[in-house]
Amino acid sequence: QVHLVESGGGLVQAGGSLRLSCVASGRTFSSYCMGWFRQAPGKEREFVAAISRNSGNTIYADSVKGRFTVSRDNAKNTVYLQMNSLKPEDTAVYYCAAAQWTYTDYRRYGHWGQGTQATVST
What we know:
Low-confidence stretches: none
Distance between the termini: 40 Å
Largest sheet: 7 strands, mixed
């Protein structure tokens, strides 16, 4: 079992940056692949990025490729999402999640944080 807590959201102007963090409890963090997802009002939860257990593999949604970077520090039980060149359409609640593989389908993830709001103004 793993408990996840996100932080780092906020209000930023278009073109700005935010760095989201997700801290996991327990000693099993390094055994999970981690994903970031987001959900805007009235929309389905969508995949943003994922990272493998040892950071050897990362994947991104096309909409964020080149702007967002996912990373993790297993010694700190933390996964990060660095978001640069933000656009208003990036506005959403961002969630981190844990799974056994770097899935892009949110239904394959069994452990979720509570989410953190990121709002990008024009």
